[in-house]
Amino acid sequence: MNAQPVTADAQLAVDGRVATLTFNRDDVRNELTGTQLVDDICATVDWVNATPEIGALVITGAGKAFSAGGNIKDIRDRTGIFDGGPARIAEGYRHSIQRMTLAMYRVEVPVIAAVNGPGIGAGFDLACMCDIRLGTPATRFGETFINLGLIPGDGGAWFLQRLVGYQRAAELTFSGRIVDAGEALELGLLLEVVEADRLAARAAELAAAFAAKPHRALRMTKRLLQAAQRMQLGDLLDMSASFQANCHHTADHGRAMEAMLEKTEARFEGD
Questions:
Q1: Is 155:101 a contact under the CB 8 Å cutoff?
Q2: Which is the most buried residue in 23, 156, 223, 248, by most CB within 10 A?
Q3: Where would I find the H helices in 155-227?
Q4: Angle, alpha carbons 95-97-102 (nearest 5°)
Q5: Using one digit for the tens of pLDDT, what is the confidence trace for 239-267?
Q6: Which residue, 202, 264, 221, is CA-closest to 18?
Q7: Is pLDDT above 80 for 236?
């Protein structure tokens, strides 16, 4: 396995084929723009993609919040990435928070957000960038940029409507209101709501179930799901045919077929 990256404001742990990245800046509610969490996320994604032994990634927060998003004081005082004129601020977004967006979109394995508390602004958008979201009764979401006279500068307008449809995404974004865990479940923003003391275990359980599948097929499936959002059907079918042909020639496919026919449990090795 490749050496794990050094993280500054998050803790990266591995259990079997599951990696867990835990934000460790509860002192600032795991904000993204006033910490090194964006760097930690990007480094983790690059490592996961280059490490075939990893089959799933869990992202969660330590403390009371999943992530409060941007640093409100920096926004008010126009410091950090918010310093300077429009051109400089635009560059700040491109080289900071938007790096996280592009990194999350290129993760090659299933990503589960274990949303332990509020995910607000960019914190909400980060959760939307994950494949699966699990929450607790304390989970809160808010696309709150409009309340500050801002727009979702991290790409949230692209992700949210793909989860809940244009009309609901428009209402949430135009109103900037906070959604509790119950409504988030109804809207499909959360897959499940569990008690706080079960969140980590449930995320690990689900991640391990995904990671146990044939390794190459799992990563190819993730790429297909992403490609399907932007490709015409004919192009996607061509891509699917190519991926499927490769899968037919993997040893893990043979193991899966044998296990199904023999009614035994397959053990996949990634070849």
A1: yes
A2: 23
A3: 156-164, 166-175, 181-187, 196-211, 215-227
A4: 85
A5: 999 999 988 899 888 788 887 888 888 78
A6: 202
A7: yes
